[in-house]
Amino acid sequence: MPFTWQLILYLRAQIKGLKRFEHIVDVVLPLALPKTMSYRVGEDFRSQLEFGKRVEVPLKNKLYSGIVVGPVYSKEIDYPIKPIVSILDEQPIVTKKQYDLWKWIASYYCCTLGEIMSVALPGNLKLYSETKITGVEDYEDHIADLTDDEYMIMEAVSIQGELSIFNVQEILNKKSVYPAIHTLIDKRLLFVKEELVEKFKPKKHAFIRFPTQYAEQEAWLTEVFDKVDKSDHQRRALLAFIQHKNKNNEALKSLVVKTAAVTGSVIKAMVKKGIFEEEKKIVSRLEAEEMDLEMLSPLSVLQQTKLTELKQAYENHDTVLLHGITGSGKTRLYIEFIEEILENGRQVLYLLPEIALTTQIVERLRKVFGDKILVYHSKLNAHERVELYKAAKTGGKLILGARSSIFMPFSALDFIIVDEEHDASYKQQDPAPRYNARDTAIVLANIFQAKVLLGSATPSLESWINAKEGKYGFVSILQRYGETLLPEIQLVNLKDAYKKNKMRSYFSKDLLTAMSDEIVMGRQIILFQNRRGFAPVLQCDVCAWKAECRNCDTTLTIHKYFDEVRCHYCGFRQNLPPSCPSCGNEHLREAGFGTEKLEVELKKLMPEARIGRMDYDTAKTKNQYEKIIYEFSSHQLDILIGTQMVTKGLDFEKVSLVGILNADKLLAFPDFRATERAFQLMTQVSGRAGRRHKRGKVIVQTFSPAHPIFTDVINTDYEGFYKREYEERNKTVFPPIIRAIEITIKHKKQHIAQEAGMLYRELLYKEIGQRVSALFTPSIPRLRTYYMQKVFIKMERDAKVNAAVKKWVQYFRLKIQNSKGFKSVRINIDVDPY
Ligand SMILES: [Zn+2]
Ligand SMILES: [Zn+2]
């Protein structure tokens, strides 16, 4: 045989292993890998493999659960390929449409499919080698149903508290352990431990019922009526029980107590008498508690007109912006759309900022839609999240959730409402994917041919422009529902007030007088200060020492209540130093003020007033938050001091005055959206003042009353504001005039961040030219121990150009991270930064 190239190739193939046909499938792993991975499919798995099922696969000696994202195909290969170890699902958990959305997000926001998978799936559906699992305590009842492997896992976890996947592999003495873990998760005996999630506490409710031996007997009822004959309270409780008992002849105790208007001790007495039995039962949070649905008030004439306008707008547009000022009754209009769609057995997704999910709006919708509503939020435990995720497949439901609920496996999505569409919390900042849920919702709707309603009292400039340019439909309601007037807004010039001695602490005399007047009239006040803690700076005037964070280039905020100084970026904290650690000076100065200091100062000035505070420190948990809301709405407090938490989704009947303590701080952010945000915040917080026939008042304290933004806020001149803001962005060339990408290059060593940044910028400049800015150091140069360098890219609004730029941005990121000396450099790409 002549010595030919064919022979060489043949011999090479012989050495590597012959070319052969293999059955292959592509899998997404929950890791930041640039591509999907391919695995060999053994004969026995071929018939069960399906798009969207999870499989257990090896990568670098570790096992992961990944998602199958394509059909099995056969291909001729000559390299070794690892096989799928097991299939974890009987039914797919990811749909093709979901995956279409993932692919769009990956390409638009420059991130990996694995990063999206990590946010898209509830914790219990993702298993990594690093995953820690933990179990329920009382698994003994289930022992009979467990396989040997499952039993060994439960034994070990009950002794050790938690196990890693590696521990389980050791215990079972085999590599493939996901199937057993997975079955135990399905049986609700195991769950994936997530550091940030509260420990699983099942919700228990007290139920009452007739003693079992009598439950069915009419005779018992007559007897019972005789037993309660002497007590009016007990008779009422009995009637309420009959009214509320469900098909299992049980009634929720709290409901009976409420309807009968009696105390719990009445029920207790009846249990003692043997009339009722009481039992505490675990209730799934997904099953709505039984409650009476509320009849909707008919639409007002104005609402009827606006509903017609909205429907007309949908004839020519898939997305409509509804600009409805606070109190205009937007929710009532949403309800009209939701009802119609649910009746047709289709789905509605209702997006809200996370914080608004715990408030009045959810209760209101629950009263209308009862068990047709599914609420997806961060307070659900791991099992509930999986339950809800799976429940999202059924039609005829209203799914209410924060930004990550766009990742649900919808099947019949017809309508998406993005409420408070301007809210910054729709944008995920860290980690990747850095997506904007509002914009992604529009793409999601497109995949389902669904319609989108963007609602806000203060729309984002982006949406406003899209509406004005005719890309979105547009409907506005600039009147409040039921004749309520817009509040009167008064500016207080702080410069004058200080000069003329008209200030007491941080409060102008005008504000203090107005507050006293309102309290005397039996009304309430909200004070807004966009900074929590006592004071943002602790410094020594003798030696210029400042309390600074050791991880970030920033000062530590004083928290007197906790007797600490804390970093608001990384969470670092220290005890409050009694004297200057540098020179010993005992008179340290507290510069600036936050909500905590306002509360202390105001208590001195108005000792009679009942003052509460709502910020991240006092309302960290759902319970704390709800307690403050309850105290304020039941008028146990006269004044509520708060950060922007008080601006969101809350309505209080008796609030007639709102005070903004320092409006200048809102305008001072080094950010192209600062003015827009200030306008939105001031307008939103003003919207809290005045309800039903009483005109509210807003007092704004500022050093620069001549700033044109105040004229816009006072006149509620939206057109004027957006026009001026648009011109400003046009002049300075910022979004939405152009499209932007912000890139952060980070490293623990300053010079490496700098060098990598220089190289990255240089490479980009060669390809995309002036679109990339010079390398610059951000206003806080170091955060969480990382030094940062940034570049800002500005691109024309042209899809082709954008795609090309994004390609280079990602290509060079990979190139830098693969080059010597830069392997540990982190490069974050933020498309459409917020
Ligand atoms: Zn000092
Ligand atoms: Zn810090």
Topology of helices and strands:
Blueprint: H1 5-16, E1 20-28, E2 37-40, E3 54-59, E4 62-68, E5 73-77, E6 86-87, H2 96-108, H3 113-120, E7 132-135, H4 148-160, E8 162-164, H5 165-172, H6 178-186, E9 190-192, E10 204-209, H7 218-227, H8 232-244, E11 250-252, H9 253-260, H10 264-272, E12 277-282, H11 301-316, E13 319-324, H12 330-343, E14 347-351, H13 360-369, E15 373-376, H14 382-391, E16 398-401, E17 413-419, H15 437-448, E18 451-456, H16 461-468, E19 473-477, E20 488-493, H17 494-499, E21 503-504, E22 507-508, H18 509-520, E23 524-528, E24 537-539, E25 557-559, E26 564-566, E27 573-575, E28 589-591, H19 595-605, E29 611-614, H20 622-633, E30 639-642, E31 655-660, H21 663-667, H22 674-686, E32 697-702, H23 708-714, H24 718-732, E33 739-747, H25 750-768, E34 782-783, E35 786-795, H26 799-817, E36 826-831
Parallel strand pairs: 13-18, 13-19, 14-16, 14-17, 15-16, 17-18, 20-32, 23-30, 23-31, 29-30, 31-32
Antiparallel strand pairs: 1-2, 1-4, 1-5, 3-4, 3-6, 7-8, 7-9, 10-11, 10-12, 21-22, 24-28, 25-26, 26-27, 33-35, 33-36, 34-35
Bound molecules: zinc ion (2 copies).
The site of one zinc ion (ZN) has 7 residues, from loops.
What is the averaged pLDDT score?
88
Strand arrangement, largest sheet? 15-16-14-17-18-13-19
Secondary-structure-derived class: alpha/beta
Bound molecules: zinc ion
Residue windows where pLDDT falls under 50 for at least 5 positions: 195-202
Major β-sheet profile: 7 strands, parallel
- Report strand %: 15-25%
Shape: globular
Q: For the record, give the distance between the C-alpha atoms at the N and C termini, rounded to a whole number.
A: 69 Å
Number-wise, the strands total 36
Summarize the amount of helix as a percent range.
Answer: 25-40%
Gyration radius, rounded: 31 Å
- Count of helices? 26
